[in-house]
Design a protein that fits this description.
The complex is a heterodimer of chains A (261) and B (220). Chain A is α/β, with parallel strands linked by helices and 261 residues long. Chain A has nine helices and ten strands. In chain A, the strands form two sheets. Chain A has a six-stranded mixed beta sheet with strand order 6-7-8-3-9-10, sandwiched between helices. Chain A has a four-stranded antiparallel beta sheet with strand order 2-1-4-5, with helices on one face. The longest helix of chain A is centred in the C-terminal third of the chain and has 23 residues, at 238-260. The termini of chain A are far apart. Classes of the chains: A alpha/beta (261), B mainly alpha (220).
């Protein structure tokens, strides 16, 4: 298996006015090409900071991030922007441009990459078909539901054929049924295009649904990591046990819901 | 008294007032817009934090904004002479109007840009957008309705200032109001100029509000 993301001893300290907050305390993790890697933890565990380190939206205070063997800290601003076109990201609150219609939102990353307007529109139309929103091309984000907005964000993320897709709590603002359909879409994308997906979540259900691997963050440190089966059947850390236990409680509730559907 | 000469004078007053207002607003945006953008970009949590530049800009804006317009008008007379060649008349008024309005516009642009959701800026960064792309296509484009509302406020304010410039021979409706209404006790002419000023502000406001609504895609 080829490693696509290497996180080596990454630490991040935030300086506030009167004290320091250690958001990440020396995390090391390898993510292989084609994985759907879940990073899970309670709120405040540092998972959003970690995912932002992967595309250098946050610069680690210590440690190294290698993307396809390239050390991000060694890149110039221009090179970093180029690498970022290969690392797409979707967000909890979708972060679409509210003043642009759906088609032009999907075109935006291609504008940044310098693709001609004609080609960008053509590709955007294809992408909207993939996410099942071709008839919404002329709508504005304010006219869409949460699930539809996330689909637009996914189409936008795929625009420049990225090798990696980072998902920061991408389903946390969605209801269970919509969450399921978005996760299904992510899984299809992973299988069809071989895109490596990193999923940040606080819900074990998301991990169970689509992830191949999982890392558990606890209070800025890595509590445990491995394949989803390993962790689910044999959790060793307290953090893992807690998350799985919490999920079991929720599990039955959700099962009932999906049976009703 | 209401002969064609008076009417011509009032019509010319409207024209001159609009000329001063529109040209000054335009020139003030040439200065104020980049200043507003720079204030946001260099702020502590901006895209390119720079304490020194931010502090300098912030101080300039605050100083100029705290000088009463009538005083500024007189203070910049030497500069006006250099730029325009004379210190009175409508064109000369444009210089102090622009200088007074630019910092005010910088503040309004700053507040409009701060309304843009940080998540959207972060998303653009994650796509590899450059600073300029983010400024143009995200910050300015996303806040355009707020910017237009701000521009409408700026126009009305500058129109008011331009009338004040009448006191020192600036020309336009304010000039007419002072010369006829105040010095010659022709209250009727003064009232007409005031009505014309009110109408002008109303029209500008209508256009501004209409435009910002038309360009806003956030509603249904």
């Amino acid at each position: 298996m080829e490693t696509i993301i290497q996180i080596q001893n990454v630490a991040k300290t935030f300086m506030t006015k009167d004290n320091q907050v250690e958001a990440l305390k020396g995390i090391s993790l390898d993510i292989n090409k084609g994985d759907i890697y879940g990073i899970i933890g309670m709120s405040g565990a540092g998972k959003s900071t970690l995912v932002r380190c992967l595309n250098f939206l946050e610069r680690p205070t210590k440690g190294t991030i290698l993307i396809e063997k390239q050390d991000l800290s060694q890149l110039t601003e221009k090179q970093l922007r180029k690498v970022r076109t290969n690392i797409a990201m979707i967000f909890q609150h979708f972060n679409l441009l509210m003043q642009r219609n759906v088609l032009d939102n999907v075109c935006f990353p291609m504008e940044i990459a310098g693709i001609s307007r004609h080609d960008a529109r053509k590709r955007a139309t294809e992408l909207l078909e993939i996410v099942g929103l071709e008839e919404k091309a002329k709508s504005y984000p304010s006219q869409l539901s949460g699930g539809q907005k996330q689909r637009v964000a996914i189409a936008r993320a795929l625009a420049n054929n990225p090798g990696i897709l980072l998902c920061d709590e991408a389903t946390s603002a969605l209801d269970p049924a919509t969450t399921k359909s978005i996760l299904k879409l992510l899984q299809d994308i992973n299988q069809q295009y071989g895109i490596t997906i990193v999923i940040i979540t606080h819900e074990m259900a998301v991990v169970r649904e689509i992830c191949s691997h999982v890392a558990i963050l606890d209070n800025g440190g890595l509590a445990e990591h491995g394949t989803v089966e390993e962790i689910f059947f044999n959790p060793k850390s307290t953090a893992a046990k807690e998350l799985i236990f919490m999920e079991e409680g929720k599990f039955t509730g959700e099962e009932i819901n999906s049976n009703v559907e | 008294m209401w002969n064609s000469a008076t009417i011509m004078m009032l019509a010319e007053g409207v024209f001159v007032t609009l000329y001063m207002t529109l040209v000054s607003t335009f020139a003030a945006y040439l200065l104020g817009l980049p200043m507003g953008v720079a204030l946001v970009v260099t702020a502590k949590d901006g895209l390119r934090p720079n304490k020194i530049i931010h502090k300098i800009l912030d101080t300039i804006v605050n100083i100029v904004r705290s000088i009463p317009f009538l005083i500024l008008l007189i203070l910049v007379i030497p500069l006006t002479r250099v730029i325009v060649g004379q210190s009175y008349g409508p064109t000369a008024t444009i210089v102090p109007l622009t200088l007074a309005a630019a910092p005010f516009i910088a503040r309004m642009v700053e507040s409009s840009l701060l309304e843009v959701d940080y998540g959207v800026i972060e998303a653009a960064q994650s796509m590899g957008a450059s600073l300029w792309t983010i400024i143009w296509k995200v910050m300015l484009a996303e806040s355009r309705t707020s910017l237009i509302v701000g521009a409408t406020i700026a126009l009305s304010t500058i129109l008011g200032y331009s009338a004040m410039a009448g006191a020192v021979g600036g020309g336009g409706l304010g000039d007419i109001a002072i010369r006829y209404g105040y010095y010659r006790y022709q209250t009727d002419i003064m009232i007409v100029t005031v009505i014309l000023l009110v109408l002008l502000v109303q029209i500008l406001q209508l256009i501004g509000t209409g435009l910002s609504k038309k360009l806003d895609r956030r509603g249904k």
